[in-house]
């Protein structure tokens, strides 16, 4: 947790379940929203905006259920500056222990002239009337001047003054289309705070979109200029290119808190798990190079970087992945890797090659790495088996046959090689992938449990390939296997076997790492 009494505390307002779900292709069922809201509460979120109650019966039901179940978190009901919207938000959040009503109306010329098509005076009057109406139901009303970053300063100050006079206690100045530069966005907060009547008596919130890749930078600029609440989404999901990413903002505050002078109540060790849950629920894969939670965020292939990391993590890492709940997998073995990294990885798996074996292993490793860039742990263990003449893998998928179709059962037959020899297994499943997993599972140790699976298409056309990522659990620890193959069912089978091999490593010191098969 980043709480520090010597730093100014920033409230984190999470809108993953409302603005995040507005991302094209993202959709959540009410029960999924409820489950994710519980995870957000565990993460330490101060305010949750679970949805847009007026938009559908399902949305209303989800907001209502979350309001009833999460009594420790402030729940926000989202509404346009319309009585019907406000009434729905009030009713949906009626059972919340702490609640606020969040209403918005456009403030920029381009929105008022082309979208609302009303005189500015009428829009300002509506803002006053609707804030006053919402204030009857709750002491906490947040007012958003939509497209504030493109609004003339005098017009923006006028609308903010009206909202404050009508009872708004939180003023949100969003960069709705991700247009502002950090110095402009920060200056807007300073001028509104100093120029609006009553501007020093309310709290300020920032809601930034990422169209120019500046959402986090703009949010930090807002904090520097008096904002005490930042509106975020997990993984930065949201309309168009998304919103300010919670994990990036939090780690900027954590890593550079000495300069920024601000902290939050977020529990760092929950960041990675929350990111994964949102990604799975919304079917939004996380980019490999995504800061903080992306696969490559704490992985290093360069021999120089690997050598430095093995001597002292701080040489090339400014954050500790394990403190964020991220499995330690900082070394990726590839053609740029050196002997030190290779030897360190082999030792972590419980093997101690002598000098001659190490040289043989390094030669085989470099030959493979030159051909395919990255060497997976699964392949490395095969090399260890060859050079040290000892078994280094518990399971190997030798052959796979599947039957699928709309008029037939989905069946899979596999042949698995273990230390006891080769054995065949078959199973029926809801689909060819499920049948494959069920068949392989018959050979796997009972204390290894399947957790989840992700599938990604990596390319199209004749050379199309797919990636499967499978997580298993053993003795309370998770192990992941990743496989890439032109056959998506084969990729799933290989990934499952790879994960089980990682979980079955004999050395107790072996780390929970991602295993890749190519």
Number of domains: 3
What is the count of DSSP helices, taking H or I runs of 4+ residues? 17
Question: Structural class given helices, strands, pairing?
Answer: alpha/beta
- The side-by-side strand order for the widest beta sheet comes to 2-3-4-5-6-7-8-9
CATH topology of the largest domain: TIM Barrel
Largest sheet data: 8 strands, parallel, barrel
β content, as a range? 15-25%
Shape: elongated
CATH architecture of the largest domain: Alpha-Beta Barrel
Low-pLDDT segments, ≥5 res: 506-518
Give the fraction of residues assigned to helices.
25-40%
Strands, count: 17
Cα distance spanning the termini:
38 Å
Rg over C-alpha atoms, rounded to the nearest angstrom: 27 Å
Quaternary organisation: single chain
Domain Pyruvate carboxyltransferase: 10-272
InterPro entries: 2-IPM_HCS-like, 2-isopropylmalate_synth_dimer, AIPM/Hcit_synth_CS, Aldolase_TIM, LeuA/HCS_post-cat, LeuA_allosteric_dom_sf, LeuA_bact_synth, PYR_CT
Pathway: Amino-acid biosynthesis; L-leucine biosynthesis; L-leucine from 3-methyl-2-oxobutanoate: step 1/4
Enzyme class: transferase
């Amino acid at each position: 947790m980043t709480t520090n009494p010597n730093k100014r505390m920033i409230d984190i307002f999470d809108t993953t379940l409302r603005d995040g779900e507005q991302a094209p292709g993202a959709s959540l069922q009410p029960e999924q929203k409820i489950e994710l809201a519980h995870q957000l509460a565990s993460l330490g979120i101060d305010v949750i905006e679970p949805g847009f109650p007026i938009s559908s019966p399902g949305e209303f039901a989800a907001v209502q259920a979350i309001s009833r179940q999460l009594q420790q978190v402030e729940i926000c009901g989202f509404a346009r500056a319309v009585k019907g919207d406000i009434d729905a938000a009030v009713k949906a959040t009626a059972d919340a222990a702490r609640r606020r009503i969040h209403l918005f109306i456009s403030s920029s010329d381009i929105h008022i002239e082309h979208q609302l098509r009303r005189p500015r005076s009428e829009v300002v009057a509506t803002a006053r009337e609707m804030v006053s109406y919402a204030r009857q139901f709750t002491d906490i009303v947040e007012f958003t001047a939509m497209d504030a970053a493109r609004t003339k300063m005098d017009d923006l100050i006028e609308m903010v003054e009206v909202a404050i006079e009508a009872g708004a206690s939180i003023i949100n100045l969003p960069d709705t289309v991700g247009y502002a530069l950090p110095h402009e966005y920060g200056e807007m907060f300073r001028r509104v705070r100093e120029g609006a009547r009553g501007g020093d008596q309310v709290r300020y919130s920032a809601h930034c979109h990422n169209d120019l890749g500046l959402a986090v930078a703009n949010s930090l600029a807002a904090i520097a200029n008096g904002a005490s609440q930042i509106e975020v989404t997990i993984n930065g999901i949201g309309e168009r290119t998304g919103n300010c990413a919670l994990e990036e903002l939090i780690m900027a505050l954590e890593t550079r808190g000495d300069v920024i002078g601000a902290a939050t109540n977020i529990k760092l060790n929950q960041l990675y798990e929350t990111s994964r849950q949102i990604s799975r629920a919304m079917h939004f894969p996380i980019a490999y190079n995504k800061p903080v939670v992306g696969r490559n965020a704490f992985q290093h292939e360069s021999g120089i970087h690997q050598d430095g990391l093995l001597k002292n993590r701080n040489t090339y890492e400014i954050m500790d992945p394990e403190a964020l709940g991220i499995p330690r997998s900082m070394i990726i073995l590839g053609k740029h890797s050196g002997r030190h990294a290779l030897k360190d990885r082999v030792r972590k798996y419980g093997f101690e090659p002598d000098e001659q074996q190490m040289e043989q292993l390094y030669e085989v490793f470099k030959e493979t790495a030159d051909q395919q860039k990255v060497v997976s742990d699964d392949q490395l263990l095969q090399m260890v088996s060859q050079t040290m003449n000892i078994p280094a893998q518990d399971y190997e998928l030798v052959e796979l046959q599947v039957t699928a179709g709309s008029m037939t059962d989905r069946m899979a037959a596999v042949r698995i090689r273990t230390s006891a020899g080769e054995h065949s297994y078959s199973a029926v499943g809801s689909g060819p992938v499920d049948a494959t997993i069920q068949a392989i599972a018959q050979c796997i140790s009972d204390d290894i449990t399947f957790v989840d699976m992700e599938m990604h298409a990596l390319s199209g056309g004749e050379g199309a390939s797919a990636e499967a990522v499978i997580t298993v659990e053993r003795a309370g620890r998770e192990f992941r296997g990743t496989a890439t193959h032109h056959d998506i069912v084969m990729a799933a089978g290989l990934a499952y076997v790879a994960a089980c091999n990682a979980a079955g490593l004999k050395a107790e010191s072996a780390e929970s790492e991602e295993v890749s098969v190519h």
